[in-house]
Amino acid sequence: MADLTQNPGSAWRGATEYLKTPWALIVVILAAVALLDPANLGATITFAAKALAHTGQYILFAVLLLAYLKATGAEVMVARAFEGRETRMILLAALFGGLAPFCSCEVIPFIAGLLALGAPLSAVMAFWLSSPLIDPPTLLITAGALGWPFAIGKAVAAVALGLFGGFMVKALMSQGAFANPLKNYKPAGCCGCGPKLDGKPHWKFWNEPARRQTFRSEFLSNGLFLLKWLALAYVLEALLVTYVPADLIATVVGGEGVLPIATAALVGMPAYLNSYVAPPLLAGLMEQGMSAGAAMAFMIAGAVSSIPAMAAVWSLVKPRVFATYLGLGVAGAILSGILFQMI
Which residues span the membrane (predicted)? Predict the structure, then answer.
């Protein structure tokens, strides 16, 4: 009898959790289209399916690369960027920030360990600003949705923003700012432990059963993660292209000048979803009249101010450092958008 009384609750919790997933949102969206505008249901599904198939090759390569980096333990190479002179640390931290294969919870103990061990805040800030903007999967998905010029521009902007933030913080620290940036932080260990700061990568991971298992689990989990979010993104893009008037988009974030770019950066902060959903949505917005510079500003500001990124910063550092992080992110997004628009 005890099992019978517990099963309904478990089933209800399972159903509730499923309703929060992208798959459930896709079903709800398509059901709404079928009910309210059945003539466009087929076109919506076809649009999303073709776009997802086009990006499929990038998804496959991205998850293979990410699984390889995790299985080999390549993240230990990132820690070496924080050794040596401060200027060298800033340069390498900004560069490696876009290569780090960390999940959002692994970044927290990694950064906390660096600060606790005495790594300068300037180098940590360079890493923190560039890391949310680009990584191998994001680069490939951005290229699939928006083209390689935009993807390469975003990668360059990520490194440039890291350098901008790192050297700005270095200048402020020389004036006595940020003497004690770190809060009293105790890692919660939400996904085990953070990456090791020592050791060497094992490039031939297939020789060790544990690393082969890591590769398989990372491949499956990341593949399903990207598939569900991109499927939702392309369904939303189909709705955007079909139902949002192009004149409205062009009026708000279209055209030349600084105002549309600044508007896109400010809107991108609260509206951004994640680095995998944003490229397809921006592709739809650009078809409707959004300028390339505004799209770049939206993507950069949103990635820096995404909930996981802000939560990581807030959990580790004091409010003054948090405000500096956001200010540098928004200013860098606007500058990146202006420069990308000019180029």
Answer: 21-39, 51-69, 90-119, 139-164, 219-236, 248-273, 294-316, 322-340
d(CA 124, CA 96): 11
Angle between helices 246-253 and 278-287 (to 10 degrees): 100
What's this model's pTM, rounded to 2 decimal places?
A: 0.70
> Smallest Cα–Cα separation from 55: which of 150, 148, 140?
140
Of 157, 178, 181, 140, which Cα lies nearest the Cα of 336? 157
Q: Which residue has the tokens 């005495």?
A: 118
CA proximity to 290, closest of 270, 267, 313: 267
**Pair 285, 272: CB distance under 8 Å:** no
Query: How far apart (Å, rounded) are the C-alpha atoms in residues 14 and 16?
Result: 5
Contacts of 76 (CB under 8 A, 6+ apart): 195, 196, 197, 198, 199, 200, 201
First-to-last alpha carbon distance for the chain, in angstroms, is: 70
Q: Which residue from 58, 132, 59, 120 is spatially nearest to 91, judged by alpha carbons?
A: 120
Residue keyed to tokens 């159903």: 15
